[in-house]
Structure formats: C-alpha cells, structure tokens
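Notes to self, Flagellar biosynthetic protein FliQ:
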Amino acid sequence: MTPQLVLTIGRDALSLLLTISMPVLGVVLAVGLLVSIFQAVTQIHEATLAFVPKLVAAVVVFAIAGPWMLETLVDFIRRTLESIPSVIG
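result:
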C-alpha cells in the first residue's frame, strides 16, 4: 500500500463526508438564519425558539435525504472493502 493510495482513499472519504453532510447543514443554516432574523425583528430571545425549528428541519431533511445518504455510504464502504484484495496483493 503506497502513501499515495492512502491519501486518495482519505480524500475520497472526506469528499463523501462533505457531500453527505451538505443537505443537512445547508437547511439547518438557512432555518437558523431565518429564526435569528425573526428573533431580531420581534426581540424575542427564547432559546427553544432557536433550537426546535433547526431540530425539526434536520429531522425532515434526514427523512427525505436519508435513503440517499445511506445508499451513498454503503456504496463507498462496499467499494472500499472490495478493493482490499487488490491493495494488499
């Protein structure tokens, strides 16, 4: 196993992690921004008002994009495990 191969596997894993996490992070960021603007306009500074909508948005995104995320992860793990014999020998 060469150092170049290890770096390639690591780079692929990090890019997969970024690809899978972007839908959840993007939606939670947008909801957090909207809630912050709402709190600034109404001057209501309740902690649960900031937390609950982001939690609900994350659950909705996981419900919608969860199968795609799981399928992508399983495909990556399958490809990685199947490449072990060619890497060792």
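- The chain has one domain: 3-83.
- The radius of gyration is 19 Å.
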